[in-house]
Amino acid sequence: MANRRGFTLLEAFVAAAVLGALTVACLKFFTAGAAQQEAMRDRSRAAQLAANVMERLAARPWDELSAEKVRPFQDAEELRQSLPDSKIEIQITQPSGEPGAKQIAVLVRWPSRSDVPPRPVRLVAWRYRPAAK
Q1: What is the pTM of this model?
Q2: Over residues 17-25, mean pLDDT
Q3: What are phi and psi of 45, to 5 degrees?
Q4: What is the DSSP track for 96-114?
């Protein structure tokens, strides 16, 4: 029986093929993870942006809460900086059943950077007419 030392050429090719397949699998895994992380970062920025706009709207006087007067918030420069190509929609409604209340809805949409479309971020708050002093 001969004493074998080292690898045969066939064993080296098989090991290289297995190593190559594992490398490709790992690269796909890391690429998908990076895309998911970027999507979560965009969603977090959209939520932060919606919260900032909602806070500014809630601080406005009652009489200034109308669709016409909140238009500047929809074109805010911070949109272009924090989440490029995003759109913000603000809806202010006054339900007929509650004359002293206004519903404020802030919706932030942005284009997808991957093949999975992002769900928009939507915040809703109620604002009530201040009591007469």
Answers
A1: 0.71
A2: 91
A3: -65, -40
A4: TT-TTEEEEEEEEE---SS
Q: Name which of 76, 73, 112, 105 is nearest 91 in CA terms.
A: 105
Question: Rounded to an integer, what distance in angstroms lies between the CA atom of residue 58 and that of residue 36?
Answer: 33
Which of 29-38, 72-81, 99-108, 114-123 has the highest average model confidence (pLDDT)? 99-108
Q: Yes or no: say if 37 and 70 are a contact pair by the CB < 8 Å rule.
A: no
Q: Amino acid identity, residue 78? A: E
Q: What is the pLDDT of residues 30-86, one digit of tens each?
A: 888 888 888 888 889 889 888 888 888 888 888 888 877 777 666 666 666 777 788
DSSP reduced 3-state for 89: strand
Query: CB–CB of 65/102 below 8 Å?
Result: yes
Q: Are 54 and 104 in contact (CB under 8 A)?
A: yes
- The secondary structure element, H or E, covering residue 25 is helix 9-58
